[in-house]
Amino acid sequence: MLGNLFGRRRNSLNALRLGLASLVIVSHSWWLGAYGPEPAPGGVKLGSWAVLGFFGISGYLITQSRMTSTVRTYWRARLLRIFPGLVACIATVSFVFAPLSALATGRRYAFYDAVLFFLSNLSAGAPGVALRGIPGSLDGLPDPGAWNGPFWTLFWELVCYALAGTVLGVLRPELARVALLVPFLVGSAFVFTLDMGWGPVRTPPDWPLVPLLTFLAGSLTYLYRDRISASQVAVGACAVGVIAIGGAGLVPSLIHIPLCVLLLASSLYLPLASVGSRFDISYGVYIYGWPVQQVLASMGLHTAVPPLLFAAVSLLLVFPVAWLSCRYVEMPARGWFRRWKDPRRAPQLA
After folding, report:
1. Alpha helix locations (H) across 171-306?
2. Among 141, 264, 313, 341, which is least packed by CB within 10 angstroms?
3. How many C-beta neighbours within 10 Å does residue 93 have?
């Protein structure tokens, strides 16, 4: 069963998360380079597939974290996972990327606007609060208004943390299963009506409800882990299910459980456990990818190369930036806080 195998084997979840973060950059290349419609297998953009994968894996790991830690330890781990790297990224965009790219290209940059961008995005991309860009600094680009493209998902990730932390903290596991299963089924049924064309509109693209359902699926996968097979046959069956659901155009409503089990179970068989075991740069790749691509677009690279080459150059530049974030911001922040609160304990952050 999945629970037993995760307890005994090393997994490649860090490698999968790095791959998903890289896929987001590949996906954004079409939009930020004005290359036209990007590939959308199953009617879903590559980046949206990656976000679903992130939320599914996160649902499993976050539920495990809450079930095996105190409230204080849980929230300390969650906030330290998100905010040190995010604050550094926002500061880098506001006071390094934006002014340097504006200076190099003759675009406008106002320090006051950069401060507003920095302060508003400390909300982790909260809708209605976070400013998308710094006026004038990206004028003339395919997307002239945004430096913070992927940040919106961080806000909904925090919402999921709060949901899992509350439900699993208040209810016993038996009741928690029901408390999470009911909204998952109701939400999936509602999205299914939209997928089938029975509602007033089709399922909106990048609708927060869809990754939230995948998070719930990951959480339920953990709660039912001792009843879910992780055999190679099960991995193959889930892969077939994901392909079939994509082919039927029902990804937003039906993909959640098969995709979660596929990612989690396949991580036990991939020979990539060493990837990210010391430096997990997936988060840095995710949050720095869009800003780095905007810098490249401001230099005109998108007009000179095809989309996949634009994506490749972006990744080559993002990886070292993400490593610096992991090595000198994210890891030291977690280590410092652990030593300050309790030098005898060093909990592993998911």
Report:
1. 173-195, 209-223, 232-248, 251-254, 256-266, 282-298
2. 341
3. 28
CA 322 to chain CA centroid, nearest Å: 14
- Compute φ and ψ for 254, nearest 5 degrees: -120, -5
Q: Rounded to an integer, what is the distance from CA 264 to the centroid of its chain?
A: 16
The rounded distance, in Å, linking the Cα atoms of 268 and 231 is 10
Decide if 252 contacts 203 (C-beta within 8 A).
Answer: yes
Q: How far apart are CA 257 and CA 227, in angstroms?
A: 13
In a 3-state reduction of DSSP, which class is residue 260? helix
Given a contact cutoff of 8 angstroms between Cβ atoms, the answer to whether 221 and 55 are in contact is: no
> pTM to 2 decimals?
0.93
Q: What is the pLDDT of residues 121-178, one digit of tens each?
A: 999 999 999 999 999 999 999 999 999 999 999 999 999 999 999 999 998 888 999 9
Let me know: does 64 contact 350? Beta carbons within 8 Å: yes
Distance CA 76, CA 60 (A): 18
119 token code pair: 């302060």
| Residue 249 backbone class (left: φ over 0; alpha: ψ -120 to 50; beta: rest) | left
> How far is Cα 147 from Cα 338, in angstroms, rounded to an integer?
32
